[in-house]
């Protein structure tokens, strides 16, 4: 059963499925229907129909599939997002990102390849952009 994150706006349309807290390590595939937050360590695949959030303490290696992906911790691998990928100020992403939209906040680090997906119009070819961004400390 999905639940609302304490303090979430009552009009928010995302249901939280759960989280992995600091001090927890996991290996394998995690498949969830709602928004999921990770603050611990994980190796493997994360699949969500909504949002995947890697908090400040997260260290994740593997693959993420989701609608929206928010990185405030460390991620090494491949991200497939139907919506957008956000790398926050303390976030570090190494690997590949496949998404129609990517936002890197000042201080965020992205070292890898970004495949900007076109809209639902399949006649538009995706654009691949190699990026190495190092934020100001």
Q: Please state the CA-atom Rg, rounded to the nearest Å.
A: 15 Å
Oligomeric form: single chain
Query: What's the pLDDT, averaged over the residues?
Result: 83
- State the separation between the terminal residues, measured CA to CA: 41 Å
What fraction of residues sit in β-strands? over 45%
Kindly name the structural category: mainly beta
Low-confidence stretches: 1-6, 120-124
Number of strands: 13
What is the helical fraction, as a range of percent?
Answer: under 10%
Anisotropy-based shape: globular
* Major sheet characteristics: 7 strands, mixed
* Domain module tally: 1
What's the SSE pattern? Answer: EEEEEEEEEEEEE
Give a written overview of the molecule.
This protein is mostly beta strands. It has one domain. The protein is 0% helix and 58% strand. It is built from no helices and 13 strands. The chain has strands at 16-20, 25-32, 35-38, 41-48, 51-54, 59-66, 68-71, 74-81, 84-87, 92-99, 101-104, 109-116, 127-133. The strands form two sheets. A seven-stranded mixed beta sheet has the order 2-4-6-8-10-12-13, with no helix packed on it. Strands 1-3-5-7-9-11 form a six-stranded parallel beta sheet, with no helix packed on it. It is globular and about 35 Å long. The model is unreliable at 1-6 and 120-124 (pLDDT under 50).
List the defining traits of the structure above:
7-stranded mixed sheet; 6-stranded parallel sheet; 13 strands; 137 residues; mainly beta; 0% helix; disordered N terminus
């Amino acid at each position: 059963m999905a639940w609302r994150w304490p303090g979430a706006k009552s009009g928010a349309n995302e249901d939280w499925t759960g989280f992995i807290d600091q001090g927890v390590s996991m290996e394998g595939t995690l498949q969830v229907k709602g928004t999921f937050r990770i603050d611990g360590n994980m190796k493997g695949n994360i699949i969500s129909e909504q949002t995947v959030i890697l908090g400040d303490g997260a260290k994740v290696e593997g693959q993420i599939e989701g609608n929206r992906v928010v990185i405030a911790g460390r991620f090494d691998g491949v991200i497939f997002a139907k919506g957008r990928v956000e790398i926050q100020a303390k976030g570090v992403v190494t690997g590949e990102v496949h998404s129609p939209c990517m936002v890197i906040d000042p201080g965020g680090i992205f070292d890898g390849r970004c495949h900007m997906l076109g809209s639902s119009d399949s006649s538009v070819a995706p654009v691949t952009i190699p990026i190495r961004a190092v934020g100001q400390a």
